[in-house]
Amino acid sequence: MASSVERLCFGQKYILAPMVRVGTLPMRLLALDYGAHIVYCEELIDIKMAQCKRVVNDVLETVDFIAPDERVMFRTCRKEKDRVVFQMGTADPDRALAVAKLIENDVAAVDVNMGCPKEYSTKGGMGSALLSDPEKIEAILSTLVNGISKPVTCKIRILQTLEDTVNLVKRIERTGVAAIAVHGRMKEERPRHPVHCDYIQAVAESVSIPVIANGGSLDSVKTFDDIEKFRVATGASSVMLARAAMWNPSIFRQQGALSVETVMDEYIKYAVRYDNNPFNTKYCLCQMLRDRVESPFGKQLHAAQTVAEICEVFGMPEYYSKTTAELEARRSSLQVNSDQPLSPKLEDDIITMAIRFERRDYPPQITPKMYLLEWSRREKLNQPLYETKQRTQDRAFQSTVIVADKKYRSTLWEKSKKSAEQAAAIVCLRTLGLPEGRVGEENSGLVNKRKRDDKQCAALDDKESVVRKRHITEPPLQKEGEMIRMTKVVNGACGQTTH
Ligand SMILES: Cc1cc2nc3c(=O)[nH]c(=O)nc-3n(C[C@H](O)[C@H](O)[C@H](O)COP(=O)(O)O)c2cc1C
């Protein structure tokens, strides 16, 4: 679908290079804030991206591409929409196109990585393996150029000879790509080896599309002014920085770089605001600390396991509390103000709703789980069975409850296992049209009836089972934990099977 936004141009630009693990949303936004004109995301592999679902995240105001295991593979937002280039790893034109179509309307351009020399890339025919297969390069790039409305670029390494390099880029130009980024090292060379400015210059002279010079971080580019010097030395139209920007993204700042301490604080703010994976956040901060990563401060950072703990290490707990409270409030108001009534959906064999458990909506000592348990007992069903999983990126929880052989789950992830179970219980109760114990619902009869049921149950109980009897005759609905313990005993006494 054609976009109304102007097509991204690659001439005269300073660019954040694609970097695995580094080029996630906080780093990209920070680089843009400091003056980068264009930002590339980390390389994302086509096979993984093809499995992702596009999800609009109203709370964060982002678009997320979520893998089947719930990992956020790519998160982007309006602020970068016209300047973010999606880089993919691919060796297959059709798959590349499928992924490009999936993300096309959320990014400014699509790039193909043809420079990565790492085995995980090359063994699948991706990255620098493509450099020795120009037919494949042509097939991938022309399929993308013809198949999507956004500009397509690629990033290569130089070949053994100047002549081969120039011949390859001329073939690439004929596919219709909008620009070509040239990392001035051969695939056998390591990042510490000097960059071949003469090769980049020869490429720049041989094609008419913008050439983006890359590879100057170690020896050429230390300051903002060096970026332009590197561009002139290579005769390129634009410059792309990886390591120099990873160590301090404020290198893009015309007025001069800021201290790494300031930059790290700004990075953390974006990481909290956009709910960035804590391990990814830590990784990027460690890159900025560089040789200080082994210092006592670096060790403290290393020990942090959550974004809250990272904020603690950096003396930013107030920022964390304030921002997460704002996000939470937005989440709640979106739920309350949603035009869409929360209706259950069937996903695979699970009934889902986007529901969050809000403790304040329930009177003290009353929870949806209690109500669900009460109802199940009354209906002589098995005790509700909760299965909870925790995802790695933010340690959030999601529960599924099984009631009468049907599964219920909230699509929203909770901070604690307890809340996740309560949310699953609410989904079940609302789907079945049952009261859930919210403030104002106390007179639904379910909970009061429970007391009577317990007494009946106790009367039928085996008189030898003193312990069980003691639990049964205890006043019900104390605390959640007690409730569960008690119910298990009651179920046993009444002959109901538990899972
Ligand atoms: C941490 C890190 C991750 C990288 N990941 C990618 C990547 O995902 N895609 C890619 O094309 N190049 C990747 N590169 C290579 C850089 O984009 C760049 O070509 C190289 O570092 C040379 O540029 P520099 O001298 O500015 O660092 C990565 C480099 C680093 C340091």
Automatic annotation (TrEMBL):
<dbReference type="GO" id="GO:0005737">
    <property type="term" value="C:cytoplasm"/>
</dbReference>
<dbReference type="GO" id="GO:0017150">
    <property type="term" value="F:tRNA dihydrouridine synthase activity"/>
</dbReference>
<dbReference type="InterPro" id="IPR044463">
    <property type="entry name" value="DUS2_DSRM"/>
</dbReference>
<keyword id="KW-0560">Oxidoreductase</keyword>
<dbReference type="InterPro" id="IPR013785">
    <property type="entry name" value="Aldolase_TIM"/>
</dbReference>
<dbReference type="InterPro" id="IPR014720">
    <property type="entry name" value="dsRBD_dom"/>
</dbReference>
<dbReference type="InterPro" id="IPR052582">
    <property type="entry name" value="tRNA-DUS-like"/>
</dbReference>
<keyword id="KW-0694">RNA-binding</keyword>
<feature type="domain" description="DRBM">
    <location>
        <begin position="367"/>
        <end position="434"/>
    </location>
</feature>
<dbReference type="Pfam" id="PF00035">
    <property type="entry name" value="dsrm"/>
</dbReference>
<dbReference type="InterPro" id="IPR018517">
    <property type="entry name" value="tRNA_hU_synthase_CS"/>
</dbReference>
<keyword id="KW-0285">Flavoprotein</keyword>
<dbReference type="Pfam" id="PF01207">
    <property type="entry name" value="Dus"/>
</dbReference>
<dbReference type="GO" id="GO:0000049">
    <property type="term" value="F:tRNA binding"/>
</dbReference>
<keyword id="KW-0819">tRNA processing</keyword>
<protein>
    <submittedName>
        <fullName>tRNA-dihydrouridine20 synthase</fullName>
    </submittedName>
</protein>
<dbReference type="InterPro" id="IPR035587">
    <property type="entry name" value="DUS-like_FMN-bd"/>
</dbReference>
<dbReference type="GO" id="GO:0050660">
    <property type="term" value="F:flavin adenine dinucleotide binding"/>
</dbReference>
<keyword id="KW-0288">FMN</keyword>
